[in-house]
């Protein structure tokens, strides 16, 4: 049976502002690990108080990044889960100055974690058998081809990856990264 691909969503200013907060980034990591949580479980895990985590969970839900689970609610207790979406960053030049600032804050927040992840890859490269796969490339592309390559990559992620609740029993959580950037040194030399 073919999987239904996640709904494609381009982040707006509200989502960018919600994502640009360090506490909310940590909450999203927790939800990613556990699939669902409430303010109490998140507070215990992160060493925060429930009022703080409750507020940040509501902000993430209002921005459409996570969703409330009414079927698990009891009294005032609210449960949340990640939303299965293919979340994209908007075209940077299309953003207002305020939204560009939120985008930049979100990007700065993410970079230390991305660098640490790459450092782990280098240190643990031969420790995980076939689970570690690395590919490099160097070719010439047009802008349209780079965009098409990125779309195909995301389609492959959605085709083969599964959210925790839908994953087969032998599946493991796996980090995947893909990036392209121009070789400006070769262009100028």
Describe what this molecule looks like in 3D:
The chain is mainly alpha-helical and 189 residues long. 49% of the residues lie in helices and 10% in strands. The chain has 7 helices and 5 strands; from the N terminus they run E-H-H-E-H-H-E-E-E-H-H-H. The chain has a 3-stranded antiparallel beta sheet with strand order 2-4-3. The protein has a two-stranded parallel sheet with strand order 1-5. Helix 1 (13-19) crosses helix 5 (97-124) and helix 3 packs across helix 4 (50-62). The radius of gyration is 19 Å and the shape is globular. 12% of the residues are buried. The mean pLDDT is 90.
List the helices and strands and how they pair.
Elements: E1 7-10, H1 13-19, H2 22-34, E2 36-38, H3 39-46, H4 50-62, E3 66-68, E4 79-82, E5 85-88, H5 97-124, H6 143-160, H7 184-188
Parallel strand pairs: 1-5
Antiparallel strand pairs: 2-4, 3-4
Helix pairs in contact: 1-5, 3-4
